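job 3f2a | input accepted
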Amino acid sequence: MDNKKVSDIPRYNPNLPPVKDTLEIMEMLPHRFPFLMIDKVIELNERRVVGVKNLTYNEHCFQGHFPGNPVFPGVLQVEAFAQTGGILALSQMNQDVKWDTYFLKIDNTRFRKMVGPGDTLILQMELISPIRRGICHMRGTAYVGDELVSEGDFTAKIVKRKNS
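job 3f2a | predicted structure (164 res):
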């Protein structure tokens, strides 16, 4: 791995307070257990967000996904990307209104290494282009330690929540 890529890996220090904790995330996203896929946000600005998902053997998916050889499913990694990106997109919207984000497109997604119990998944989403007309185009990378475990390009639409 070249030096530029190593320097781009988000660093997680569990001793620092999060930018958003689980309760603050639930104020922005409609997801709840067992579908809330990020535990905290450790970085957030107008171009990038970094979220953390701590995986324990108690995750509901490990009971039925390769029992005896538990693997965090790629589809749930994609959902974790979506929720992390949703925090980035929704943080730029009028906070007096409730918003949701919905996938329009997923491209170039790769799963490079298995993720399992005991891993801390660090999810980074960066805007590829400015949000225009409610369309958000982001690049996601996920790491366990210094290893890239999954990545992809995601396009989502930001819409006003029907019951807001």
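job 3f2a | Strands lie at 40-44, 48-54, 99-111, 120-127, 135-144, 147-160.
job 3f2a | closed
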